[in-house]
Amino acid sequence: MIRNNQPLLKVHDLVVDYPTDEGNVRAVDHVSLELPNGEVLGVVGESGCGKSTLGFSLLRLLKGGIIRKGEIIFNGQDLGKLSEEKMQRLRGSEISMIFQASQNALNPLLKVENHFIDTLKKHNRWSEDSWNDVLRLLNRLEISKSRLADYPFLFSGGMQQRIVIALALLLHPKLIIADEPTTALDVLVQARTLKLFKELIEDFNLTVILITHDLGIVAEITQRVAIMYAGQLLEVGDTFTIFEKPAHPYTQALIAAIPNVKDETKKKLAHIPGLPPDLRNTPKGCRFADRCLYAIDICKSENPEFVTLASKNKIEHIVKCFKYDDRYNIRFR
Amino acid sequence: MTDTTSDLDNSVIKMQSKSSNEEIFPLLEVANLKKYYPVERGFFHRLFSKKDEFIHAIDDISFSVKRGEIFCLVGESGCGKTTTAKVIVGLENPTAGQFMWKGENISYNDLKPKKEDVKSQIIFQNPYSSLSPRMKLGDAVLHSLTIHDKITDSNTKKRLRNSIFAEMGLFFSSFVSFFLLILALLTEGNAEPTLQGSINGLTYILSHIPQIFGLMLFDPLQFLINTISTTLTLPINLIITFIQEILKGVIPIDYVGTSVLTALVLFSIALLIYFYHSWFQKRKITDPQVLELFNEIGLSPPIQYYYKYPHEVSGGERQRVSVARAIILNPELLIADEPTSMLDVSRRAGILDSLESLQRAYNLAILFITHDLATARHFGDRIGIMYVGKLVERGEVEEIFKRPLHPYTMALIEAIPTPIPGEKNYELPKGEVADAINPPSGCRFHPRCPYADPSICSKEEPELVELHPNHWIACHYPLSYQ
């Protein structure tokens, strides 16, 4: 893995709002992230926690959303200050996205080959060589050349998803944002797609942000995990550490809530009581305090700050919880 | 809390003592169940090909569900697991199949829930579409009691009857006011009906009948507004004379005037009764049975949830209401069709917990349909693995997960992303789920199977045999039994 000193992507203090008639929905609330070259980062959270919005805001593809504050520095340039024209050129060639519902990501009126040709022509990359590249890529994703003249609806869900992955990789982007890439697929197809995706990540040394709610997928392909809750990051750390020694009560609860097929003891699954807070009117203090088993008075009145925990490797393990903050020295129940 | 647990224990004991020799037979036995859907093709296709095509959604499967157990049906999408659920709950007619209920042969029609006899109930996958958006959560549950005539509380009965009368009254008086209005319009401004006036009025009414009638049926309030506006469009001098006549106190006033007035008065009285019932009376229809169940299923305080609409609560709570709606009819068999797949991770475990405690409390048998093997392992007692309409493996959950014999089961287990970081070595089957219209010959899994032997697997269809005690499998080359 090649790592430069300069991170490929640096998100600093990002705030994204959706103004609605019933108030301002703060979907991303002061999120800071750094992504070194060649890393696969998983962003995990329940639905409505703002993880997809975070992904869309990196491409400035927010529908009805506004970036209120913060910087997105990609490869040395601030994406927030780029003109729409330059941004358009950057989408697909520098940063590309694998969308959640592959059936909707493909144009039903265009043959599959035209999706590739159009993308290449739009970015002025159309040549004989580039077409051979396309064929090679599709071959790796197990889509035969003979089917390129078919329309998207003739393909199965798994194949459509693989075509969308091929489209995202087509222009060799530096960063790929994958928003629930395998959620709509069946178990076996999902496993196969993930395996292919993982191979491609390794071969092309891709930098990926994987947005998902499935901790299983995260465990399979990521190196680092960021846990998101109600618009904020609660814990960021190396995948092994997060699964072995989750620090934040929310992460612990989330991991305890998923059944493991390899688990022989029929232990009871834990569920998290309550609901995530309303993003229009977030409570004071820690966002998770209402559902947290360990919450004490200070959790409900003051906002915790990130604390760095000791980690085995070089990857930083940070957590936003008073439990680990030495300054307070709080004993939890 | 201690009270409820002791209650649960008591009911379990009661259930167990009640059951007699019926215990020997499983609750439901399904044998050789088939369901084919005809494929709809265009005219020319039918003209030139004589062969009718069918989707083999379920192709000859047999299984049984014992009393008080959780039987899981697992498979990929399109394997026929949901169709099986629909057949058993009476939503689809099977093409073929025999059913045994507590050891007695019954026909398919006996299996369907009747007004007085409810054998099974279903929880649907998507709680966002399975609850009516216009019904309060309590009413939704009460509704199933109403349909099956199982309301025991006399107060609830009385209030329900009253509200039905109120609605009928509204309907009736809108009819009356409608005909009075027609009469009024027929005469249109004339104190005494004349031929020309009648023709004019008739043409006017005929051109408006569909609108008026439709409105009256589906939206009484809009109808009232229309009635008023129609009245206003009558000749202005008519209204003036009408008011003048009233002022003068002459009786009878203008013919038209009386009719319109009567229609309006009748209609507003009906509306008043209706709103009185819907606002003040209907609100009070709380059935203690429903409240109790809400409490039991984790919707507390129940009275608050009773008056909420589905959009006001979360997906998990909606699914709890669906569970309550099914449970309240006291079915012996509950069919749960992927009840947790639409929910967030943090809420799945909660639903499964409540299902489990209900299952123990009522000694329910649950047919649990899922694509998630991990959930099946945690939740189920026995499991059946389906592939393209066939049952390929069946047995105790622990047995199957420890020693999967069918390559397909093995692949399914290996394919699930586990929450443990690390590498995997198992070879995954290639390709996609087989076509259910033209399923592969022989074993349906052979085109994808890493161990397939073309000489047998593609020719002979393996039968479901009991290879080990309580472990049934349909495969020519089962994996080794360790």
Walk me through this protein's architecture:
The complex is a heterodimer of chains A (333) and B (482). With 333 residues, chain A is an alpha/beta fold. Chain A has helices at 51-58, 84-90, 102-105, 112-122, 128-140, 157-169, 187-204, 215-221, 239-244, 249-257, 297-301, and strands spanning 9-20, 23-35, 40-44, 66-74, 77-78, 95-98, 175-179, 207-212, 224-229, 232-238, 306-309, 317-320. In chain A, strands 6-7-8-3-9-10-12-11 form an 8-stranded mixed beta sheet, sandwiched between helices. Chain B has an 8-stranded mixed beta sheet, with helices on both faces. Chain B has a 4-stranded antiparallel beta sheet with strand order 2-1-4-5. Chain B has a domain at 155-282. In chain B, helix 7 packs antiparallel against helix 8 and helix 13 (315-327) packs parallel to helix 14. With 482 residues, chain B is an alpha/beta fold.
What's this, in brief?
The complex is a heterodimer of chains A (333) and B (482). Chain A is built from eleven helices and twelve strands. By secondary structure, chain A is of the alpha/beta class.
Helices and strands of chain A, in order, run as EEEHEEHEHHHHEHEHEEHHHEE
Global morphology of chain A: globular
Main sheet summary of chain B: 8 strands, mixed
Order of helices and strands of chain B: HEHEEHEEHEHHHHHHHHHEHEHEEHHEE
Give the termini distance of chain A in whole angstroms.
Answer: 42 Å
Percent in helix of chain B: 40-55%
Most residues in contact, chain pair and counts? A-B, 44 and 40 residues
* Quaternary organisation: heterodimer
- N- to C-terminal separation of chain B? 45 Å
Task: Report the mean per-residue pLDDT of chain A as an integer.
Answer: 87
- How are the strands of the largest sheet of chain A arranged? 6-7-8-3-9-10-12-11
